[in-house]
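Researcher: We're teaching a course module on how sequence relates to structure. For the next exercise, students receive a sequence and then see the predicted structure as tokens, so they can try to spot secondary structure elements on their own. Here is the exercise chain.
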Amino acid sequence: MESFSSTQAGTMIYVYQRAIESLKKGYFIQPERIVRKGSWEKELENKRRLQKQAVASQSAMEVRLNRALEEAEKYKLELSKLRQNNKSVTSFSEDQFSNI
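Model: And here is the predicted structure for the students to work with:
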């Protein structure tokens, strides 16, 4: 069994008492830092919430882009019909003038 000096033993007792008090207060002791019990849960919950918001935002953006694409296709088709109609009217007018 290892023997400790009274100073070392006193220090160890103090450290253990502080650790027990911290645990009773809801703190986890990690080598790098002391973390409040539940803070990692809150952080995880915040990250999940942010991820859900990002997914929802991306989904909304995709819906808006699809609507814009559909509208652009509609106008493209309408423009194509108008050009075709314009060609028909122009050729019809030229035929009428050539017959006169």
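Model: If you want an answer key for the exercise: The chain has a mean pLDDT of 79. Residues 39-99 form the longest helix (61 residues).
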